[in-house]
Amino acid sequence: MKRVDFILLGTVIVLTLFGLLMVYDASSFVAYRDLNDKYHLVKDQLKWVFLGFTGLTFASFFNYKKFYNLSLPILIGSIVLLGLVFIPGLGVEALGASRWIHIAGITIQPTEFAKLALAIYLSAWFSERENGRFMAFSLLMGLVLLLVMLQPDMGTASIILFEALIVYFLSGGNLIHFFFAVPALAVLGFILIKLEPYRWSRLTAFMNLGDSLHASSYHVKQILIALGSGGVMGLGIGNSLQKYAYLPENTTDSIFAIIGEEFGFIGSVILILLFMVVIWRGFVIAMRTKDTFGRLLAASITSYIGIQMLINLGAMTALLPLTGVPLPFISYGGSALIINLFSIGIILNISKQNHK
Which conformational region is residue 102 in: left (phi greater than 0), alpha (psi within -120 to 50 degrees), or beta? Predict the structure, then answer.
């Protein structure tokens, strides 16, 4: 027990339980209106919390070094899952996106598995130095990102891309590749945004946000109203007005706006500090890990959780264009919560085996 990183574990427990509270708070009205059960969404989330912590416990005892030999099957399985979303009868479409598959009564989001699968595979691959791997790395990432973009899910594609680049360069990748890759990715990203009208409208609304709030989308307006209403101290827990069906996606992508409305600036800063603790402990564990695979794996997992947090909060505070990215440990959703908690279990296992 002395080898358990209780700071990391305790912070994640606090974030997850707080997320459970906020899912109930944000969903009670809509759940009662639509499903005649104000506890419907929080009961789902409670089930996923249990499964997530079961996965965390298992991963914290499962020797992380065994993932090295399992990395290729895990990657292949993840790519297969990404492809299954396009098969009629298995893929589930909602709001114009095909991001889920329904198997044996269970609906899962393959992109969440892809984040962890890539973390494991790239950490195993890059734990051994290899010349000329940039082209193979680019082809692999091109395939994965293509499957994600076709869903379409540009927010998750951005998380996966940054995660992969971080692991590549932490493993000793050539910085020259970075200077070639960034402009190419910027141009490609602009083209992809331009090809989809809804992405282009989000970008133009974001670029013009400083000129007039009226130029922004309805979603952004409601987010800013929620955050502005919260002020410094907040309206108090349970007193949100935006949760009464004014704010879209108020239990998933936009749950931070409800938190800001009810807990204010001070509560929001405390929440962000808790996320900073998770990122800090993840990188501390990575730096003190002796073997390269474990070091890269801890850094990779910490990176994609941190990047997802930054993208979500950036979108919620109008610092980034609006994207459909949930807030880790807080937002409603099973696949993301279970994978994130399982990933924390892996970091805890790495920490235990490299404790000084």
Answer: beta
Per-domain residue ranges of the chain: 6-353
Q: Choose the weakest-confidence range: 187-201, 210-224, 293-307.
A: 187-201
Task: Please tell me the predicted confidence (pLDDT) of residue 45.
Answer: 93
Instruction: Pick 153 or 200 by higher pLDDT.
Output: 153
Give the end-to-end CA distance of the chain in Å, rounded to a whole number. Answer: 13
Q: How confident is the model at residue 180 (pLDDT cuts 50, 70, 90)?
A: low
Q: What percent of the chain has pLDDT over 70?
A: 83
Distances (CA, A) of 134 to 73, 138, 166, 306: 21, 6, 13, 24
Query: What's the rounded mean pLDDT across residues 111-133?
Result: 86
Contacts of 108 (CB under 8 A, 6+ apart): 81, 100, 101, 334, 335
- Cβ neighbour number for residue 147 with a 10 Å cutoff: 21
Residues with Cβ within 8 Å of 131's Cβ and at least 6 positions away in sequence, in order, are: none
